[in-house]
Design brief:
single chain; alpha+beta; BirA Bifunctional Protein, domain 2; 2 domains; 9 strands; binds zinc ion
């Protein structure tokens, strides 16, 4: 700054205030602050000159400098707020909506068909008083096989190709693995649960088999449970799921953890029983496997098999979706192909 006579202080103040009024954006107001009020700015240079005044003028000059500094600082704060408001207005103006532009469409997702069916099946069983029970995917061999009446050398183990995580741990090959876990929590009281979830088998991936698939298991244990209860529960389920006129049929089968064991069929949902390609012209579709819980399994679950009996059933969810929608390839369910999935968006 040029050396100015002390009486120029008020002139400087007026000029500074005039240029402040011209600073109408953030950049301008920052530059003004640096020039005048910052530690290296002009105002500080006026302060430094106070000490250089003759003693008798020093106090009066100091007061004038303070007055000018306060005036500039006050004006600066006011202008800064005004600029902030202006900047906000400008930014709103930049974002304003052009109503003549075409709209952006909202994309909405949909549930995977497997999720939809699991929820539907759960809803039906919840209405019948069943609770949902979750059990581990990585399961002890003990719960997946041994306690379900399949000791190490049991030939039934060969029916299920298994992913072993260690000598004692497997990826569960069926939701039945949760049966004994549920029983041990409820015993000696009655139990009525469904166990939904992913299961894993070490198989070749083909049209009909995947290495992962969903099952829902059902388990009911109590004093007066009989085979007719199994039929009643499953008929009720089939009618709620597939229509009021639905019929079921039981055929003898074999599972190590039920005795007797049955396969349960429903009337073909596509042809109504007349016979079509999907039901291989039999009029029936295989729905699930079931039976009375084997006494050994009841005992492993902590029950006295002379006192109580149980029914159990397990169904494959992908298989059910395939039947309901006439899908011929199980691999679609895990490929996440939107062309496939969009067909199920409701
Ligand atoms: Zn049919």
């Amino acid at each position: 700054m040029q050396e100015q006579p002390e009486n120029d202080l008020e002139t400087y103040q007026d000029e500074a205030l005039a240029t402040l009024a011209l600073a109408t954006d953030e950049k301008g107001i920052e530059a003004w602050y640096r020039k005048h009020l910052a530690p290296s700015g002009t105002m500080n240079q006026w302060r430094k000159r106070i000490g250089a005044q003759p003693a008798e003028q020093r106090k009066a000059f100091g007061a004038r400098v303070n007055t000018a500094a306060t005036a500039l600082a006050t004006a600066f704060e006011t202008q800064k707020r005004a600029v902030a408001a202006l900047e906000l207005e400008r930014s709103i103006a930049r974002q304003s909506v052009d109503v003549t532009l075409p709209g952006r469409s909202l994309t909405s997702g949909g549930y995977h068909p497997v999720t939809t069916i699991i929820r539907e099946v759960e809803r039906v069983f919840h209405e019948m008083g069943f609770l949902t029970f979750e059990s581990p995917h990585a399961e002890l061999d003990e719960f997946n096989f041994e306690l379900l009446n399949m000791p190490a050398d049991h030939p039934a183990r060969d029916m299920q190709d298994t992913f072993y995580l260690s000598d004692r741990t497997v990826l569960r090959t069926h939701t039945s693995a949760g049966q004994v876990r549920a029983m041990r929590i409820y015993a000696p009281h009655p139990v009525r649960v469904i166990l939904p979830g992913l299961c894993y088998r070490h198989e070749n991936i083909t049209l009909r088999s995947e290495i992962q698939f969903h099952q829902i298991e059902g388990l009911l244990v109590g004093k007066s449970v009989r085979l007719s209860d199994l039929k009643g529960v499953l008929l009720s389920f089939a009618r709620k799921m597939f229509g009021r006129e639905q019929r079921i049929r039981m055929r003898g089968s074999y599972f190590p953890f039920t005795e007797p064991s049955v396969e349960v069929d429903i009337r073909c949902t596509l042809c109504g029983g007349a016979g079509c390609r999907v039901c291989k012209h039999s009029g029936w579709l295989e729905l699930l496997g079931a039976g009375l819980v084997h006494p050994v399994v009841l005992a492993n679950g902590g029950y006295d098999p002379r006192e109580v009996r149980g029914i159990a059933f397990g169904m494959g969810i992908e298989r059910m979706v395939m039947l309901l929608h006439g899908i011929d390839d199980i691999r679609h369910f895990f490929q996440n192909d939107l062309r496939f999935l969009r067909q199920f968006r409701s």
